[in-house]
């Protein structure tokens, strides 16, 4: 069976792309067949895996607007068992063009039916907004993994995001669960970080992953080499923390 | 006369809100009359200045959708000469509702005509996207101040953003200029930061501000106290760097 996990948070810069790339790559290293879908017009998951965004002629846009089959858009990556559906700036038009499409909120869900059997995990990197691209993803997903930076504004927005997920569950996708809340860019020397971790553990103890992603230079350097951190520097704290996260998610899934 | 400056970048988490709040407050400290407009549904500029987002009953939403006069929405802040037009999650509906409005790209521009005379600067904090809220802002603005984090993905997105600004200039707002590119979260111990600064100085030397904002704990702590950093800790490097930026922008404006 295939599990579809959305990486979403409307707050910008919290580590959605860094998590999408490195969590997927870590699952692939653990011998799971994984498909990463970039549904952000910025195309950071696409370039972060070494693909030239300007040379992607068929992207997520075509799946949503031109009924292109996902199998015709899928690319192999440098990581064994990890495939990618790329995106680029063309996707920016999709939000407006989807408005007039019948069942516009379920276009992605319908499209993924044809490829689910080939993968054990499908991970989707969302843009920093709650528009039709993110709604389509939430409707197609089994669960949502929520990266939260250890900062004030990121914590403040968490309640609103959980509220939106509840609304999606009530009106579109009754099976949508929260896979977990992932604390990112944790800096042990920083007081505010400790306060945010304490607050989130108090309010959301059930959902928070025990794996915490530290602020780690290898994670911000790796994308400039087009590689996930497990290929760039597997000994780094960044790589180890995402391998740990993949293990934690796989263990939770095996218990379900 | 009044200068309207958009703080915009579709990349998330680059310091748009931190810049909008602290640049505005620094201009006010320099005795300029300033209006800060929060046009992001996240409402971070609103809460970062100490306002409870859930208690804002008239917001930017009402100006865009209900033709409310800006004067009826403006709130005084703790900083002398700095006023705010607040926002909250209600604004999320505006992007869809604006679609059917006549001249939907110019609603904000028309609305601001009635208050421009009361301010020397109007600063607008944009969401991390290039949708109708950001387009409305770019059409209402004289210039765009672009915060760029010293990171790979933020640098990668800069070319796309400058392209979008050029398109807006050609089709909607011929006067739109780039106020400048502001390097943020600079960490002198981090090699990648130095590389990004070098690259941006090479490709965009005309646009880059000489003021650089360092990564500084006071900047991330101040919003949890609802204060701009000049009120939270004026001696901090964060406060000093935004006072320096305000000075640099005012000097550029006086030469125009
Ligand atoms: N744990 C970490 N340590 C150091 N740097 C990190 C870490 N996680 C992410 N980064 C860096 O922080 C920046 C923001 O992360 P990223 O782009 O993954 O966030 P995002 O949520 O996908 O942003 P957006 O909202 O624009 O999609 C990037 O430059 C990334 O390289
Ligand atoms: N120079 C700095 N030093 C330390 N922390 C900073 C600095 N600038 C911003 N921050 C922190 O980094 C995070 C991102 O900044 P901010 O929210 O201002 O970015 P943004 O571009 O407005 O994000 P969004 O795309 O979600 O609107 C915030 O938690 C903020 O407090
Ligand atoms: Mg991203
Ligand atoms: Mg912001």
Write a brief structural summary.
The structure is a homodimer of 256-residue chains. Chain A has 256 residues and is an alpha/beta fold. The first copy, chain A, is 41% helix and 14% strand.
Secondary-structure topology with pairs:
The structure is a homodimer of 256-residue chains.
Chain A: E1 3-7, H1 16-29, E2 34-38, H2 44-48, H3 60-65, E3 75-76, E4 82-85, H4 94-98, H5 107-112, E5 121-125, H6 132-140, E6 143-149, H7 152-171, E7 177-184, H8 191-203, H9 217-221, H10 229-232, H11 237-255
Parallel strand pairs in A: 1-5, 1-6, 2-4, 2-5, 6-7
Antiparallel strand pairs in A: 3-4
Bound molecules: adenosine-5'-triphosphate (ATP) (2 copies) and magnesium ion (2 copies).
Biggest interface: A-B, 36 and 36 residues
Let me know the average pLDDT of chain A: 97
- Secondary-structure element order of chain A, N to C: EHEHHEEHHEHEHEHHHH
What is the overall silhouette of chain A? Answer: globular
N→C terminal distance of chain A: 12 Å
Structural class of chain A: alpha/beta
Unreliable spans of chain A:
none
Q: Helical residue percent of chain A?
A: 40-55%
Q: What integer value in Å does the Rg of chain A equal?
A: 17 Å
Largest sheet of chain A: 7 strands, mixed
The oligomeric state of the chains shown is homodimer
Number of beta-strand segments of chain A:
7
Strand order across the largest sheet of chain A: 3-4-2-5-1-6-7
């Amino acid at each position: 069976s295939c599990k579809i996990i959305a990486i979403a948070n409307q707050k910008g810069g919290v580590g959605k792309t860094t998590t999408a790339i490195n969590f997927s790559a870590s699952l692939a290293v653990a011998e799971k067949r994984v498909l990463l879908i970039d549904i952000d017009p910025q195309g950071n998951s696409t370039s972060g895996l070494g693909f030239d965004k300007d040379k992607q002629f068929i992207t997520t846009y075509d799946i949503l607007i031109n009924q292109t089959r996902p199998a015709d858009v899928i690319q192999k990556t440098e990581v064994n068992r990890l495939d990618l559906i790329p995106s680029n700036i063309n996707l920016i038009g999709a939000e407006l063009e989807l408005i007039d499409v019948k069942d516009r909120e379920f276009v992605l869900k319908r499209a993924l039916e044809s490829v689910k059997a080939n993968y054990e995990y499908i991970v989707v990197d969302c843009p920093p907004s709650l528009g039709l691209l993110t709604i389509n993803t939430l409707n197609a997903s089994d669960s949502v993994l929520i990266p939260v930076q250890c900062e004030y504004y990121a914590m403040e927005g968490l309640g609103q995001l959980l509220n939106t997920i509840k609304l999606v569950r009530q009106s579109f996708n009754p099976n949508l669960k929260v896979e977990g809340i992932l604390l990112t860019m944790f800096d042990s020397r920083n007081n505010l970080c400790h306060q945010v971790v304490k607050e989130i553990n108090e309010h959301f103890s059930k959902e928070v992953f025990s794996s915490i992603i530290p602020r780690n230079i290898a994670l911000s350097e790796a994308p400039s080499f087009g590689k996930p951190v497990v290929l760039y520097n597997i000994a780094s704290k960044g790589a180890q923390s995402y391998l740990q996260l993949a293990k934690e998610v796989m263990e939770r899934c095996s218990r379900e």
